[in-house]
Design goal:
The protein is an alpha+beta fold. The protein has 38 helices and 20 strands.
């Protein structure tokens, strides 16, 4: 019997896209650790193997065309004839074509030309030095190049394509195996200066020890990470065997057919229609009948920080049938939800009361080409009509700023703009300024973004003077719950559980808390997660399903079996992942069919992007849970080849080797992982367990101490150090077990083990206090019951022993053998009482 330890490791993956997003990934390790097996005569260290949860690389949006389940991107070839490109729309829609072709949507990517350089760029005066190599963009000739000069010599990289343009221009060059790579220098559109591309994202590369990525690495490969919002009808044509791309697309930029579907049939029937007539069926996707949700969901794939589930999204589809959504479990958000990094907009948009009303959609404020509708100063506040007419008509009284000032604009307070990596983003939560949150969490607020010479206390004073209702209180409550959960401070667990079940819970905050609860070992969370499985939000149901993965109770399994047939694909996939490895033969025919179908969707979602290491890593996890261990090892090996510096494939492959009894191979992989990441508590922990399994207790202790040093909250490491010390050093055993118990006071095993060693050490009174508390809280915890009863019997207190055994039989849930043992104990005590 092993136990699951849940701790976090941050892997930071860069995506250079329309907004040069640096995507942050949260990876959950579920490490197995040693169980003190009844602690009778000897203590045996068992290396138990458990699966990790998926690595989630937050990906670029999908191609809006059909795709094969394997993600092989064959659809473009089969449907190429159905797309006509924007030129095919021009003859009938000249006005829209002109608006589109000059917009940031239309120019999301474009060929590099001397004309483009002349109009938009300035010469780079000085080279930029990156790791002793100098780079200079040469943009004044017939062709553009980036010159590289360094110890290895000189090389020129041709500028072939240009991405972006609202804030930054990024430049692409062709490299080997069909890769288009983002070049190391980029151009700041507003400041008219050249800069180091990856250095601008440096804060996010924590797994690189705060060193920027080399520009040749895969997170800066266009084909891998940043394609879908920059070109239209793209096929990566990735060959897994040769690790080669043969990427094609219909045209650069986001064209008409991205939002309206293939245009060939539409243009044909209108071309052939008799003069003066209009075909009843336009054979295109019209937005006229779209609901607000359909419009928002169609815009979201290019404006969300997310995980891709399918490549089959079509305009009008529901977002959560094709994607998940990143929330505040990602530290790229401040605890109160404001942007810390550059996060796109859809997450905060779902926090907006205006969006939650179901009445507001993206097209209210933006045109289909992405422009803002209310550019004229005198019309700026019209975006908030008709819902907020009274405040718009009396704006100065509401804003407390002069009518002609920037502060009198609704968006100044409700959609303040922040900047990261030279990218600017408006806060689409539309929540009012909260300077109190700045004081608490150091997050930005609208007041001080304008009044830079003042501090948050000054702003908070004015806000509280102007607004009698303390609207900031709710922001602070939510932020403190997120902050506590991120820090695994579970003293606020009751408040967290109350929040996620409350009627007025915010969807995004509740999802964030549920995802963060995966690191919480306290079993009080289970009823709350099961209850959330009936929430109307598919995002919440999916988060709860994922969170129930390690709950083996009948209630949890029943909820997951139901979720496997949920109407939303996201929920079905998370339920299938949580049920991964379940023996379907024991299920009813109906449940078996649901689980098998959801599992097919789950496996397909893993394989959507076969060019990413995480896909192979997650397939390895699936194979491992299905007991297909050799296939799991092959997938982990492929993942490591794709990205040799990440440790999850190495750790999980080591655990699989251990399951196969191949401890030498397991140790080699763990040693490789610890060389890559010496401070990884998870790697040190597993290496300690393995060395204990091999009988090298001194080295085992060394690694477990290193794990506890790296993560002082790792109760499992403290517990195993206690087990190691138990036979030879009772003082040390008690010290480590007391630490484990203090870190996890709700875990009865830690409390029981502490009581066991206290009793052996002679501190029987303290041991009894702990054991009495365990049997009061956990009446079915057999080890504690038998130890406590045995102590009372030995101390000649049969009435106390009988009390414990009778209570256990009455309140506990025991096996037949355990029940018989308890009855035998009671019979023996009764016999003693009747002895003359």
């Amino acid at each position: 019997m092993s136990e699951l330890c849940k701790s976090t490791v941050r892997l930071l993956i860069t995506d250079v896209g329309t907004s040069s997003v640096c995507f942050c990934v949260i990876l959950w390790f579920n490490q197995a650790f040693v169980r003190n097996h009844e602690i009778k005569n000897t203590l045996t260290l068992l290396l138990a193997v458990c699966l990790t949860l998926p690595v989630i690389i937050l990906c670029p949006p999908p191609k809006i065309v059909a795709a094969s389940a394997s993600g092989d991107d064959q659809q473009a070839a089969s449907q190429a004839g159905s797309y006509v490109g924007s030129a095919g729309c021009r003859s009938c829609h000249e006005k829209f074509y002109e608006l589109w072709s000059t917009s940031f949507h239309g120019l999301a990517m474009q060929p590099y030309t001397p004309e483009f350089a002349r109009i938009h760029l300035v010469p780079q005066k000085k080279p930029i030095t990156i790791n002793k190599v100098r780079y200079r963009a040469e943009v004044q000739g017939a062709e553009g190049f980036v010159q590289e000069s360094g110890p290895a010599g000189n090389k020129r990289y041709k500028i072939q394509h240009v991405m972006g343009g609202k804030n930054v221009y990024y430049f692409l060059t062709p490299l080997e195996r069909g890769r288009l790579q983002v070049l190391p220098v980029a151009f700041d559109v507003r400041k008219k200066v050249w800069f180091d591309t990856t250095a601008s994202h440096i804060r996010h590369f924590i797994d690189r020890r705060d060193h920027p990525l080399d520009w040749r690495e895969w997170p800066l490969t266009f084909n891998t990470m940043c394609y879908n919002c920059h070109v239209s009808q793209l096929s990566t044509n990735y060959d897994v065997k040769t690790d080669t791309y043969h990427t094609t697309w219909v045209e650069p930029g986001i064209n008409c057919e991205t939002c309206h579907g293939p245009g060939e049939e539409h243009t044909r029937i209108f071309r052939e229609a008799p003069a003066g007539t209009t075909p009843k069926d336009p054979r295109t996707i019209s937005w006229k009948a779209f609901t607000a949700q359909q419009k928002n969901d169609t815009c979201a794939p290019c404006h969300a920080k997310m995980r891709i589930l399918t490549q089959t999204f079509t305009p009008g589809d529901r977002y959560f049938d094709h994607f998940s959504l990143t929330t505040f479990e990602d530290p790229d958000f401040y605890p109160d939800g404001r942007d810390l990094g550059e996060n796109y907009t859809f997450t905060l948009w779902r926090m907006s009361p205006c969006a939650q009303s179901g009445q507001l959609d993206c097209i209210h404020c933006h045109t289909s080409s992405g422009r803002y509708r209310f550019k004229k100063p005198e019309e700026a506040n019209n975006a908030c009509l008709p819902c907020h007419r009274e405040r718009v008509e009396n704006a100065a009284a509401h804003t407390r700023h002069p009518a002609t000032s920037e502060g009198n604009k609704c968006i100044a307070c409700h959609m303040p703009m922040t900047e990261f990596a030279r990218m600017r983003r408006s806060d689409h939560s539309m929540l009012p300024p909260a300077p109190a949150a700045t004081i608490a969490f150091k997050s930005p607020n609208a007041c001080n973004l304008c009044h830079k010479d003042k501090d948050a206390q000054w702003s908070d004073g004015w806000v509280r003077k102007w607004r009698q209702r303390d609207y900031q209180a709710a922001v602070l409550v939510r932020g403190r719950l997120i902050e506590a959960a991120r820090g695994q401070d579970w003293k606020l667990l009751p408040e967290i559980l109350n929040y996620i079940q409350s009627k007025d819970r915010n969807e995004v905050v509740a999802v964030s808390l549920i995802r963060l609860l995966r690191a919480c070992p306290d079993e009080r969370k289970w009823p709350a997660l099961i209850a959330v499985m009936n929430d109307p939000s598919p995002l919440l149901r999916a988060a709860a399903a994922a969170g129930l993965e390690f709950n083996t109770t009948l209630e949890a399994r029943s909820a997951l079996l139901k979720a496997a047939g949920d109407e939303y694909c996201l929920v079905r996939i998370e339920a299938a992942a949580a049920l991964s490895g379940i023996a379907t033969d024991s299920l009813s025919a109906e449940d078996k069919q649901r689980v098998e179908q959801a599992t097919r969707e789950y496996v397909a979602s893993i394989q959507v992007q076969p060019d990413q290491w995480s896909s192979h890593y997650n397939m390895g996890n699936y194979y491992s849970s299905s007991n297909n261990l050799r296939a799991a090892l092959a997938s982990y090996e492929t993942a490591s080849k794709r990205e040799p510096r990440v440790i999850p494939p190495l750790v999980n492959a080591a655990l699989v080797h251990a399951r196969l009894g191949e401890n030498d191979q397991a140790e080699a992989l763990l040693q490789k992982a610890v060389a890559l990441e010496p401070s990884s508590a998870e790697v040190q922990f597993n290496l300690g367990l393995l060395k204990a399994e091999q009988g090298d207790m001194a080295i085992a202790k060394k690694h477990l101490l290193a794990a506890l040093k790296s993560d002082p909250q790792m109760a499992e490491a403290a517990y195993n150090l206690c087990v190691l010390a138990g036979e030879k050093n009772l003082e040390e055993a008690v010290r480590y077990c007391r630490k484990a118990h203090e870190l996890r006071p709700a875990d009865p095993k830690y409390a029981y083990t502490l009581a066991f060693y206290l009793h052996r050490k002679g501190d029987t009174a303290d041991a009894i206090l702990i054991l009495e508390d365990i049997v009061r809280r956990q009446p079915g915890y057999a080890d504690a019951i038998f130890l406590l009863g045995g102590i009372y019997e030995k101390d000649r207190k049969p009435e106390d022993a009988g009390r414990i055994y009778r209570k256990a039989l009455r309140d506990g849930n025991f096996s037949g053998q355990q029940q018989q043992m308890l009855k035998t104990k009671l019979v023996a005590i009764a016999a003693q009482d009747n002895t003359p």
